[in-house]
Structures
1.
Amino acid sequence: MAEPTIQSIRKITTENPYRVCFVCLGNICRSPTAEGVMQHEVLQQSLGSYFEIDSAGTAAYHVGEPANSKSRKVAEEYGVKLLSTARKFEASDLDYYDLVLAMDRQNYHNIKHLAGGEHHHEKIYMLRDFDPQPDDDEVPDPYYGGINGFYHVFDVVQRSCRNLLDQLKQHVEK
Ligand code: 4NP
């Protein structure tokens, strides 16, 4: 099972919540799904005040838009609401967030390019580093395909986020 260790996870408290940002290309399909799923998992486990969850895109094409209608439909079937408004990932996000999770290799390299030093680099991972069933290392882009691709994205994102949260919550101090 994929069990990468995040470099020195700090103590997570309500005073200093752990900040996670999911990043894809357009911030309308994959990363809003990951944001919604992770927020849902955190709330289900009564950990809402210990985590701050966000998403962004490396491209600005869709800035200001809600999540894609197919992404929202699939998520709602699983009881997950996608509430994000698309925004572009900025270099300053690497200061603010504790963990930045790229959906594919292109996103990963674009984020790495913005990193200003080791303290930034060590925050950046691929979401599928945390997939317990890693048959691929990327969350595939569903944008130009049919609804099945959106179901696949949801499945991959859900099991990866659950595994990630299992690791993070061991550092919560109540
Ligand atoms: P996302 O999907 O990166 O998962 O939000 C895409 C959304 C839009 C485009 C590509 C991928 N686009 O080319 O406009």
Note: Residues 18-164 form a domain with the Rossmann fold fold (CATH 3.40.50.2300).
2.
Amino acid sequence: MKVVVTKNYEESCKFVAKEIIDLVNSIPDAKIGLATGGTAQNVYPHLIKAYEDKKVDFKNVSTINLDEYIGIDPENPLSYRYCMDNWFFNHVNIDKANTYVPCGLNDIESEIKTFNEKLYGDKLLDFQLLGIGVNGHIGFNEPHDSLTAGVHIENLDESTIKANSRFFDSPDDVPRKSITMGVGDIMKAAKIVLIATGDNKVEVMKALLMNDYVTTKIPATILKLHRDVTIVIDEDLAKKAGYVK
Ligand code: GLP
């Protein structure tokens, strides 16, 4: 794994955006896996700015999002579809027909089928953007005795419900289930970039950066098996995790 330590979170967002911009400039019809979550959110304004400055063109890009809550309406401001439209898609020249965020309201079996068709119907993902949960989840792949390779339904971990409750009125309002890419789907992306910041990610960063173990109890550790992963963290997190002095 390559580790990039930036001055601060804002620089991390800029770095990640530049990775995506460079990718699209070299592969104009890039197929990109996108992420939501508070950390990834601030990458998108940099992509929009680059588009406005004519430094990147999203016309032929296609995107697939990692996950979505089950039972949430895409029109709901807390749905990942709503977030992606408002954070990014509505502000650039991407063709919305080429963007896929799983729908949490559709029949589950047919949505899993659609998700797989989107992932594997043409080429594989050129790039996957990731955040990371406090418990090490990627997408919504929560810690278990074993991980699921493909698209599936996941029960949210208590720690995820707690962490994500900041976006909802109360923890009771956080959906309990999600549809997510499996770890195998994520690992098939040609290039993976994970962004993390904040004190609540210190423990998980230690597990990712400070030893060579892979464990299903910290799903992100599977990324150690991928040949092109970049972890982007700020100096503060890098220090607290013991990665830099
Ligand atoms: C959610 C998403 C994950 C994301 C995580 C991190 O649970 N399903 O894909 O990585 O949030 O979120 P944050 O960046 O807000 O800590």
Note: The two ends are 19 Å apart (CA to CA).
